[in-house]
Structures are given as structure tokens and as C-alpha cells.
Amino acid sequence: MDIRETFEQRGLIWIFAIKELSARYRQTLLGPLWFFLQPLLMTGVFTLIFSKMLGVSTGRAPAGLFYLSGLALWTYFSQVVTALGTGVRSHGALFRKVYFPRLTIMAAPLVSNAVQLVMHITTFFVVALLSGPAGVSSLTISPWAVPLLPLICVYVALMALGVGLVIAAMSIRFRDLHSLVTFLLQMWMFGTPIIWDTAPGGERWRFILDLNPMAWPIRAFRGLFLDTSMPTSREIIFGSMITILLIAVGIVLFRRAVRDGVDVL
């Protein structure tokens, strides 16, 4: 599994991504409209439960925009991880019959789900522009927003790739890993600043943010567009180190697992 060979055959990534997108929304009632409806429905549920019923504070940011911004990056991350975790087994027959760079099929969810990420972020901007009083936008755009937003999205994609490759490698041996991953992702979400801005309990639980590599991109996204607190340099450096480590370990484990376990797929 050569990374250079994967890059040379990158056209396969687009083929797999388009196939995945078309399969996802084929024979659906609303089709691509789910790109916009899904984040709005989830934001409505979060606002009702956490803001209205439980009274969770979102600081200076409007509750709807606060949750919508957090869900944008998290939804992309969780969907990519889930797709990668099941990707090896769902394409097991193809792996046995045809040789191609295995990373191409694992990179396809990064591209196919990026379409939904763009639509989700677009929905956030539209809602922010329309939700302000008397035509005043709720956005507070930082001058660093344009160069930093793509970097944040790339970081989340790389983080998802690293986690997904590790899970994909383990799923070859353990068939029931998918159910555990779904549960762990749900627990991870509540340890990520999606429904809260700073760790509950203040500095005493600050280590939660430092240990969670998905915390700083969500806080940075909000800080760039909603003028909430920005992540610390410690969070960014630590999260980046974890991401690099996960990608390196994930590639090694995935390469070994596919080589040794393709016959059991």
C-alpha cells in the first residue's frame, strides 16, 4: 500500500466518492435536500433540549448558531470515521478480486462527506445572516476566517482519516467493532464542546479540552465567526501531535491488516 501509488491513482478516489454519494441518496424522498435539513433538525433538537429545557449556557452566541457550528465539523468527522470503520468489510469482495491502492477506497469518504460539510457550513452562514435582528447578521467574522477555515476543515479530515484507519484495521479481526465505535463516538461527542463552550467545572476539567483533539477545531470555528473563546496554543499543538500519530499508526496497522487478513473479509 504505497502512498505515492495512491496519489497517482487519485482518480479512483473520485470514482468511489461519487458512487458512495449516489448510493446514499438513491431512492430517497428528499434526496440532496437532506444536506440542509439534517443539520437544521439536529440543531432544533439540541436547542430545545439543552438550551430551553436544561438551560445550558452558550455564552454570547445564539443557541441555534452555537449548536449548528459545532455539529458541522462533528457530523463530518463522525460520518467519515463510521464509513472508514465499515469500509474494509463492505468492499471485501473487491479487495479479493482486483488490485488497486487500498487507501483510495478509504479516502473516498473524506471526499463524499466533504460535500455535506460544505452544505452544512453554507447552512450555518445562511441561518446566521437571516437570524439577526432587523436584518443585522449574527456573524462576527474574524479577519483570519478566510485562511483558517480551510485549514480547520483539513485538520478534521486528517483526524478522521487517522481514527478511521485504526478502526478499519481492527474491524478486519473483530466483526462487532462497529457497534462499539458507534457508542464511543456518541460518548466522544459529549466530551467535545458542541453543547458547551468551556469544560463544565471550569479549570478543574480543563484537561478534557487538552486531551480531545476534536475540541480545538470546533472552538476555533466558533471563535472565527461567533466571537466566542478561541482555543489555546496548547490545545492546537497537542491535537495536531495526536493527529499525526494516529495517521502514522493507522497507515501501518491498515497496511498490515489488509495484507494479512484480506482472505477473511
Walk me through the topology.
Layout: H1 3-8, H2 11-25, H3 34-53, H4 63-90, H5 92-97, H6 102-131, H7 145-173, H8 177-190, H9 207-211, H10 215-226, H11 233-261
Helix pairs in contact: 2-6, 3-4, 3-6, 4-6, 4-7, 4-8, 4-10, 7-10, 7-11
How does this model look, in words?
The protein is an all-alpha fold and 265 residues long. The protein has one domain (3-20, 33-264). 73% of the residues lie in helices and 0% in strands. It contains 11 helices and no strands. Helix 7 (145-173) packs parallel to helix 11 (233-261). The two termini are 17 Å apart. The mean pLDDT is 82.
In brief:
73% of the residues lie in helices and 0% in strands. The protein is an all-alpha fold and 265 residues long. The chain has one domain.
